[in-house]
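Incident log, support desk, overnight shift.

02:14 A customer reports that sequence design results differ from what the structure should imply. Their input is reproduced verbatim below. On-call engineer (initials T.W.) acknowledged and began investigating.
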């Protein structure tokens, strides 16, 4: 699930991933997008918009589901974070720090 899983529609049907017994959490790709936007030389949105997205995840997910999100800033499905940040080590360090201090389970790939 690449976006907010609380309102997912797949195959024309609303999915209830975050309700009941289906999933305990999902990969938190929205967090990856937020971190990269914050650290980008040319962000695609404002800091306010990034914070709004992070807060909407907090509001949309049940508490336990939210704290079980698998936070990542790089996976086999995404561009490497080093490349996305154009090899800027200081920004990479900040990205890793954010990964570890924000709610959820940090995952390094």
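02:41 Re-run completed on a clean worker. Output:
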């Amino acid at each position: 699930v690449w976006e907010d899983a609380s309102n997912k529609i797949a195959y024309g049907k609303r999915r209830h991933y975050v309700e009941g017994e289906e999933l305990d959490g999902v990969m938190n790709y929205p967090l990856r997008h937020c971190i990269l936007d914050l650290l980008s030389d040319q962000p695609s949105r404002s800091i306010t918009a990034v914070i709004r997205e992070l807060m909407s995840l907090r509001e949309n997910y049940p508490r336990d589901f939210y704290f079980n999100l698998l936070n990542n800033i790089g996976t086999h499905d995404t561009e490497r974070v080093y490349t996305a940040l154009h090899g800027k080590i200081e920004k990479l360090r900040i990205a890793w720090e954010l990964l570890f201090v924000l709610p959820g389970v940090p995952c390094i790939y």
